[in-house]
Structure formats: C-alpha cells, structure tokens
Amino acid sequence: MGLSSFLRGVSQRSLMSCRLEFEDRPLEGAALFPLFDAEGRTRMVIITAEENARIMLADWAPGLFVRNWTQRNRLRLRFADLNDASMWDEERFEDLWHFDPWWVLGDERYQGHSAVPTLRSTNIPGYDSTVSGITFDPDLGRASYALKKSGDSVHVRRFTADTLAAMVRRRRAAHERPRGPVAVGWRLRSLWRFA
Question: What b/e string do you get for 124-159 counting C-beta neighbours within 10 Å, with b at 16 or more?
Fold first, then answer.
C-alpha cells in the first residue's frame, strides 16, 4: 500500500455534512455517498440535502467529482437537474454498496421516502460493523482502501473484490426467502367455525 495514494484519497467522513458546489448553486450540509460494486468501482452517487430532506441519485462518470487544493467539493452537475431517488429503478442500485456508519438515511427527515429501505440495504455497516472507513480515489471513481477495526487497532487494506465477499453472501442470505410447503387452492370453512 502506498501511503501517498492513501493520503491523496477522499475519505467518506470528509463527504459528510459538507458543502457541495454544483454548476448552478452550492448546497450546504449535504452528504455524498458513492455507490460502488463489489469490486469497488463507483457506479452512482447518493446526494442528501438536509435543507429539504431530499435524497437524489446520479450516475457516476469520469470528471463528475473534483476536490481542489482548498478542499472544495465540486460536482459537475446541475442541482436543478437531479432526480429524486424514488424516480430511479431500484434494480439499478440494489446490488451496489455505500458506506454510512452514521446511518444518515435512517434520520427522521428521510422517513417515508420510498427509496430509503433499498438504499439502507446497500449500507456496509449493516453487514459488517468492523469496517470503520472507506477511502476513495481522488475522483471517487473507486473505493481504494478499507479500514477495519480489530480490538483496539485499525488495519488499512487495499480494497479488492475479496473485501466485500462475505458481506455479499450475508446480503444474499438475508434476501432469500425460505422455501417451505405452500398451501395451494381454496378451502371453505363452515359458518359455525368462525364463531
């Protein structure tokens, strides 16, 4: 692991309660969560806006995110053009992952939002509480490092396909329904049995 590449990365913590600068306006108190696949490649981003309790999604593309030397977070998107997460087909993100140990989407202001249950099911801490941090490449194009707690220490490991392998199995098991005997057909009961 190269220390310099780790230090140049963008930590998920630095994307919490931050200012995001869009092409048409700044957004204060926002959170930005990359949604990435099991190999760490970013596919989409979740953007939460505290000011109006919106949860938005956007497809990730090279050059979408830029952090300059003054640590300003810029998104090359227009805020006005972002679609609410409920407008997206959940199949596009249900197999992706994000890292939110603060459980922002569980906040009261987001209750009732139709996309929250599926988005919460993509949260890594729901499957492995030992993951204490994720660091992304400077452009957020991929998860590059995972920090895992072990007792009183923290281990920094390069993010690989094996990083989430156990969590993928746990998520699949949680979504599988037990298959048991199913009653087929109708059965009528006599009126005197309902009393």
Answer: bbbbeeebbbbbbbeebbbbbbbbeeeeeeeeeeeb
pTM: 0.83
How does DSSP assign 38-98, residue by residue?
Answer: TTSBEEEEEEEETTTTEEEEEE--TTSEEE-TT--EEESS-GGGPEEGGGS-GGGTTT-BB
Q: What's the pLDDT tens digit per position in 183-194?
A: 445 455 555 554
- Is-contact 18 30, C-beta < 8 A? yes
In single-letter form, the type of residue at position 160 comes to T
Contact 65, 71 (CB under 8 A): no
Nearest-CA neighbor of 64 among 46, 76, 80, 82?
Answer: 76
